[in-house]
Design brief:
The complex is a heterodimer.
Chain A (H helix, E strand, L loop, with lengths): L1 H9 L5 H33 L5 E5 L13 H8 L4 E15 L7 E8 L14 E5 L12 E4 L4 E9 L8 E6 H11 L12 E6 L5 H11 L3 E5 H7 L3 H33 L1 H9 L4 H33 L10 H20 L2 H6 L10
Parallel strand pairs in A: 3-7, 4-6
Antiparallel strand pairs in A: 1-8, 1-9, 2-3, 2-5, 2-8, 4-7, 5-6
Chain B lengths: L3 E10 L6 E11 L4 E5 L6 H8 L7 E6 L2 E2 L5 H11 E4 L11 H11 L5 H13 L15 H13 L5 E5 L7 H18 L2 E6 L10 E6 L2 E2 L2
The chains are: A alpha+beta, B alpha/beta.
């Protein structure tokens, strides 16, 4: 291990090729992952903001909040299901909003809601809204009055919330009646009756799992279908397809990283066969030599993660705002873990060759 | 107790019609502080004998003892431990780790045997001083002359205080003057320590440094 460490310190140029290639791969992985995260966040913020683990849609809505309607009596029936602690209504309308001083309307998702969730406080007063912070890019600021939709329903922004977008549109959180007013004024053919919502988020009582409660709700209130938040996210149009496409690209990139490590260490092992034979002859075990090689692979990967991470942060600062990119700790951690794992697997390819090196090859040669 | 006792050792490579007998019923005993030169032409079995004595190869038949250790039946793992702790090797062309300093090349074998700390460092310094390399201990092999490299290799072989040191053509890469200096040094170092040594060489001018010369021809020990 000491030998491997000293080789890295004293002959860094030897590892530049592999380190450089892995650094570029890290940049690629972070950018790809960052775009995926940004797209996912912008599509699913509404659902991920919920602190409740379940959401119920109309049974005939095919798992879509936009198609769903939940009238008052059905909402009450959900509340009455044994094991439901809280069942609060939620509605969504995708519209444009005129921002003072801007010629282009901002795309907004109006959320009508009844109770605070993980990211949004309790509903504001009628006619007021909490805006998603991403709307600041469209010129939205606190104290402004936005005019929503063609009917120009006025809504005053009283605060910002984070990461609550839906369908790539900035969230605007209003109390339920304000939402109904906006919806009914702008899309009359989709108008809803007083008390009607599109979905109900359900918090179970202690001692009952979300899955159990979902089954119970489905059974006792046949007008709705209850989903876990994860199921609801997957059911969002395009989200699972988006994730599978990006996951395939990211997976392929990790495979390339593994091949880079495997090929590099296979070549370096062949190059070192003489030295490894001598070390075996003087008493180094195959295990010690393999551990040294693994250490080098992991340290090269770690170096690539640090340099690649910094490069990506630099790159992110010059990428135009129009490109969706979210670089969170989770993405860095996933990429780092994935690359280290890939380096471990890649370096393990050379173990067989190390084991087969004959210590007797050290004697008798020139 | 002899440092090396090889009794009726055979080594056969391959099998059937393609079998090659590299060592044929070879018996050799080396005393605890004896220095033996092993000479013979290319392909005579010198390297095979040295490899078997050092636990690098296992014999096909016969018994090999190094000090109290009967290594004939040792498996690969046991042989690795044995080589690490009880035998020193000096190879042709030194074969040092190129990116380590002279001193670190000595410390490597101690480290492999799990020996670390100030005492080990002191021992490496002392050995290098004895070998006339006290001022070169921070140099890597590329900064050392051929003779200096071979002296570092001798230090490495002696670092773990082995019972037996095996030299594989230690002067083949050196001119005759340097070769003689190195042989003189080998003799001094092994005699001072009472360590046994087997030196494989094809250079008969070097054999007078040994206590005894054994010839090998076609896998058989002649004298």
């Amino acid at each position: 291990m000491k030998i491997a460490w000293k080789e890295l310190l004293r002959r860094p140029s030897r590892f530049l090729t592999a380190g450089g290639a892995l650094t570029l791969i890290v940049v690629l992985l972070l950018i790809l992952g960052g775009i995926l995260d940004a797209l996912t966040n912008a599509s699913t913020g509404l659902l991920r903001a919920q602190s409740a683990p379940l959401i119920a849609y109309g049974a005939d809505a095919r798992d879509s909040i936009v198609r769903s309607r939940i009238p008052v009596e059905v909402h009450d029936a959900i509340r009455d299901v044994n094991g439901v602690r809280e069942a609060s209504g939620l509605g969504v309308s995708l519209l444009g909003a005129t921002v003072p001083g801007r010629s282009e309307p901002a795309d907004v998702a109006i959320f009508g809601y009844e109770a605070a969730n993980a990211r949004v406080p309790a509903p504001p007063a009628p006619g007021e809204a909490y805006a998603d912070a991403s709307l600041q890019d469209d010129g939205v600021s606190i104290g402004q009055t936005l005019e929503v939709g063609a009917a120009a329903v006025p809504v005053e922004v009283v605060g910002f919330v984070e990461n609550t977008n839906y369908n790539l549109q900035g969230g605007l959180w209003v109390e339920a009646d304000t939402w109904r007013e906006i919806l009914n004024a702008n899309i009359p053919n989709a108008a809803v009756a007083p008390g009607t919502f599109q979905a109900v988020v359900i918090t179970p009582e202690e001692g009952i799992s979300p899955e159990q409660l979902a089954d119970r709700v489905d059974e006792q209130v046949p007008e709705v279908k209850a989903l876990t938040i994860d199921e609801a996210i997957t059911a969002l149009p395009g989200v699972s397809q988006q994730q599978s496409v990006f996951s395939a690209i990211i997976g392929t990139t990790f495979t390339v990283a593994g091949l880079v490590v495997a090929l590099f260490f296979a070549l370096i092992t062949i190059e070192r066969i003489g030295l490894l034979g001598v070390l075996k002859a003087i008493g180094a075990s195959s295990r010690t030599l393999a551990a040294g090689l693994t250490l080098q692979a992991v340290l090269i990967a770690a170096g690539a993660i640090v340099v690649g991470g910094l490069l990506t942060l630099g790159l992110a600062s010059v990428i135009p705002d129009a490109v969706p990119l979210t670089l969170g700790f989770g993405r860095f951690a996933f990429t780092a873990f994935g690359l280290v794992l890939t380096a471990l697997i890649g370096s393990a390819i050379s173990f067989r060759r190390i084991i087969r090196i004959d210590p007797a090859s050290a004697v008798g040669g020139a | 107790m002899p440092a090396l006792d090889m009794n009726e050792v055979r080594k056969v490579y391959g099998s059937g019609e393609t079998a090659v007998v590299a060592l044929d019923h070879a018996s050799l005993t080396v005393g605890a502080d004896e220095m033996v030169a092993l000479v013979g032409p290319s392909g005579s079995g010198k390297t095979t004998l040295l490899s078997i004595a050092g636990g690098l190869l296992s014999p096909t038949e016969g018994v090999v003892r190094v000090g109290p250790h009967e290594i004939t039946e040792y498996d690969r793992k046991e042989l690795t431990t044995f080589r690490r702790e009880f035998v020193g090797f000096v190879f042709q062309g030194a074969n040092l780790v190129p990116f380590l300093t002279a001193k670190e090349n000595l410390l490597v074998v101690a480290d492999l045997a799990g020996k670390r700390g100030k005492d080990v460092e002191r021992r490496a310094d002392k050995l290098l001083d004895e070998l006339g390399l006290g001022h070169r201990k921070k140099n890597t092999p590329s900064k050392l002359s051929g003779g200096e490299r071979q002296r570092v290799a001798i230090g490495r072989a002696l670092m773990n205080e082995p019972e037996l040191v095996l030299f594989d053509e230690p002067t083949s890469a050196l001119d005759s003057k340097l070769g003689e200096q190195v042989m003189e040094l080998i003799r001094t170092e092994v005699k001072e320590r009472g360590t046994a040594a087997v030196i494989v060489t094809h250079d008969t001018r070097m054999t007078h440094y040994a206590d005894r010369t054994v010839e090998i021809s076609d896998g058989r020990l002649v004298a």
